[in-house]
Amino acid sequence: MSFVRFAARRVAEMAATLLVASFVVFGAMYLAPGSPASFLLAGRSASPEALASINAQYHLNDPFLVRYLRWLGDMLQGDFGRSITYRTDVSRLLADRLPVTLLLVAMSLVVVVVIGLLLGRIAAVRGGATDSTVLVTTTFAVGTPSFVAAVLLQGLFAVQLGWFPSSGAGDGLGDMLWHLTLPAIALALYLIGMLARVTRSAMLEALGSEHVTVARSRGVPERQVIRRHVFHNSLGTILTTGGLIVSTLLVCTILVETAFSIGGIGQLLELSTTTKDFPTVQAISLIIVALFMVVNLIVDLLLPLVDPRITLGTRGAAA
To answer: Can you tell me where the transmembrane regions are (predicted)?
Structure first.
């Protein structure tokens, strides 16, 4: 299958999936108990006229399908609606908060890739006690949820030692990097263990392959064998896991941002869900779904480049 044809098919599939996801997201919020009107009234009694005004402003009395189609049409034009909680355009909220979340995810991804690949490679190549130590360490990492890691790191390095800020995202790039260091580590800890184990398993499998034995018998230096024949042949499996890692980062950032009071879209989603801010929840949910699909598309397009045995549209299978 040609690259252009495959990309076009995947984009069409993404559009169809987003359409279904938009219906599910909108329907879930429509069926959720409570209503935006109850939040706006904050428990106060309201006259029928005031309640009717609120319902008319947010189209709460319109039929489900009418509300969905109006919302979908606005979304296609880049209009995410108006936040019920913050009384401002959702697009403005996203523009203010999305960069913080993307920076946090990027920092966490760098930590995961660098440490995870390093630990996995060391464990596979050295074996013995080093391999056992890495396995024990990664078992601890995989068994520690992001929220628990956030609380532990915050209590030790922010509260007890005072080395890092305990909350907030900071102002300016340098200050933001400093504020997001602990959250990035908390977000990355579980995924470091996952990537290290996947890298170790993939490299151990490659080490036992016939072409590695042949390369060694021909006198190829061990470092070159590891780099060209072992690590390179493991990249397909590692890259596939990388797509899952990015998707997990996007989900887990909600917990970490809440623990560290970071004003990103994760914390915004949690607060908006609590206050029944339907437009904000729907917009963020669709953005997360879209990011998932974009990540998977990128992985599928890169796999044939790192592993010629894989063809477009066959993830993880040799051609």
So the answer is: 12-32, 100-122, 134-157, 177-196, 237-263, 283-306
